[in-house]
Amino acid sequence: MSFLHLGNKTKEHTKYREPKMLREKYEQVNLFETLLPFDITELDPELQRINDFLDAHPQVLSCFTEQALARSENSKTLGRPSESIESIFRMLIIRRRYLLGFRETSKMVNDSLTLRYFTRVYYESVPTYSTLCRYDNLLSDDVLKQINDHIVQGAKKQKVTSGRKMRVDSTAVEADIHYPTDSGLLNDCIKVVSRLAKKCKELGLATGEKTRDFTRSAKKQVLHIIKYARKRSEEGKDEFKNTYSKLINIAKRCASNATRLVESIPEKSIGKAKIIRKRLEQIIPVTQQVIDQATRRVLKGEKLSSDEKIVSIFQSDIYTIRKGKRDKENEFGKLLEIQQSDGKIITHWTTHSSNVSDTERFIPAVEKHIKTFGRPPNLAAGDRGYSSEDNEKDAQLLGVKRVCLPKRGKKTKERIKYEKQRWFKAAQRFRAGIEGTISVLKRRYGLNRCLNRGDNAFDRWNGLAIIAYNLVTIANA
Questions:
Q1: For 63-82, what is each residue's pLDDT tens digit?
Q2: Region of residue 374 (left: phi > 0; alpha: psi -120 to 50; beta: else)
Q3: Beta-bridge mates of residue 166
Q4: pLDDT average, residue stretch 15-25
Q5: Distance CA 95, CA 402 (A)
Q6: What is the pTM assigned to this prediction?
Q7: Do 384 and 408 touch, CB atoms closer than 8 A?
Q8: Integer Cα distance of 107 and 414 in angstroms
């Protein structure tokens, strides 16, 4: 008989069972199904094909399960049994497929027997919106890309894509913020600090000048700034700067009060006091940065680079993007690069943390395609932003037979003749298809605006949208 050794204790292997608190799946209960006036397993054809694909590729769920187990060293053995990981993953797909909120997704699945079957909840209680939100926050960019890699390999086995062609393009995913102005950012900082000061007063942590509410004074100055901003006279410009100076002074007093409030809250405080202290410590440096930015740009007339500017006090990692659109000269968010193969399958994506040149990203895209499919594509296409002589030569050295990158600027007669070839024009038509993909992702999967907050917000938002898009594309192939 085999034995399992645990420290100094020895237990018989047949009697010892490791506790399992993380539930991966619910077992289906067929009781009373025969009494229903319809077939519960009769799904929408698209959902049925997605269901079959996920059943045929359990590695997709395994990636999510491993991430759930990694959240804590005791996730597997301690606590009450979790909700079904499979159900949560499928509910997250439903959420992005139909572009719903967490509450709406939970309610929609709860009210639909067919969706209960698709999500494998069956007759168990449906995970609440807070549970969905918590597991959504667990997803990292690496895990989402691993899941997508398994989906791409599944699409390759089903011959939805062959990897013979690839196209690449980038787009801006906007953050869920109002249009940033210096006065607006200063007003936002003042409102946040005043709100936290009010909570400190309610909890009895501080009183007096430290808890003063400056929101009314700030609003008055913002309205004056709007009034004087349109005036072109010297007197109007002077009043504009004077009003801005008053608003900046109010923000400085707010920042000073916030620093004193942090000192008045014990360092080892618990509960609400601990949360307020943490938020004050986060908002103070942001407020000081906004004050410095407004002083330099408005009062001193300096021009700041995009890297020096702050466009949101809640999402400090977003930046200004210029894509040359007539209706939107400036977009505020993050740059998303999408790589797509034949069959309309998105094989890879990158959410850039800063503005990057498209020219630098073409060869890494080709290398990633080779890694995914095991061989170079016959055709690699991109728009003028990716065009350079080095990119064409390097791609051909990697084994790409035809590289379609229209040259920027003035062209020689030889180049004009080269780009008028039949294969080049056909390749450009193929490249233009990625514009339609981006349009669908923005309209039907929410990539026009990121609604997530917190750490790796854009990574989670973009990744789940692309995974849902790929599953639907495979289902409809």
A1: 888 888 887 777 777 777 78
A2: left
A3: 341, 380
A4: 58
A5: 39
A6: 0.86
A7: yes
A8: 62
CA 477, CA 83: separation in Å to the nearest integer? 32
How far is C-alpha 52 from the chain's CA centre?
Answer: 27
Q: How far apart are CA 477 and CA 466, in angstroms?
A: 16
Domains and CATH numbers, the chain: 17-138 (no CATH), 160-177+317-475 (3.30.420.10), 182-299 (1.20.120)
The structure tokens listed for 46 are 């698209």
For residues 232-262, one letter each, b for 16 or more C-beta atoms within 10 angstroms of the residue's C-beta and e for the rest, the string is: eeeeeeebbeebbebbbebbebbbebbeebb
Torsion of CA 182, 187, 193, 198, to 10 degrees: 180
| C-alpha to C-alpha distance for 85 and 143, rounded to whole angstroms | 15
DSSP string, 230-282: T--SHHHHHHHHHHHHHHHHHHHHHHHHHHHHHHHS-TT--THHHHHHHHHHH
CB count within 10 Å of CB 198 equals: 14
Enclosing H/E stretch for 133? helix 129-138
Compute the distance between CA of residue 17 and CA of residue 1 in angstroms, rounded to an integer: 16
212 by Cβ neighbours in 10 Å (0-12 / 13-18 / 19+) ranks as: middle
Q: DSSP character for 386?
A: G
Structure tokens of 294?
A: 């407004």
Cα pseudo-dihedral 442, 446, 449, 455, rounded to 10: -130
Q: Is 447 helix (H, G, I), strand (E, B) or coil?
A: coil
Distance set, CA 316 to CA 24, 332, 427 (Å)? 36, 11, 39
Residue/partner pairs of 310-317 with CB below 8 Å, 24 or more apart = 310/185, 310/286, 311/177, 311/180, 311/185, 312/175, 312/177, 312/180, 312/185, 313/185, 313/188, 313/189, 313/192, 313/283, 313/286, 313/287, 314/177, 314/453, 315/175, 315/177, 315/453, 315/457, 316/286, 317/353
Residue with tokens 């209706």: 327
**Under a CB-based contact definition with an 8 Å cutoff, are residues 402 and 379 in contact?**
yes
The two counts, helices (H) then strands (E), for the chain are: 16, 9
**Cα dihedral 117/120/126/129 (nearest 10):** -110
Query: For the segment 419-473, what is each residue's pLDDT rounded down to a tens digit?
Result: 999 999 999 999 999 999 999 999 999 999 999 887 789 999 999 999 999 999 9
Burial of 430 (0-12, 13-18, 19+ CB in 10 A): middle
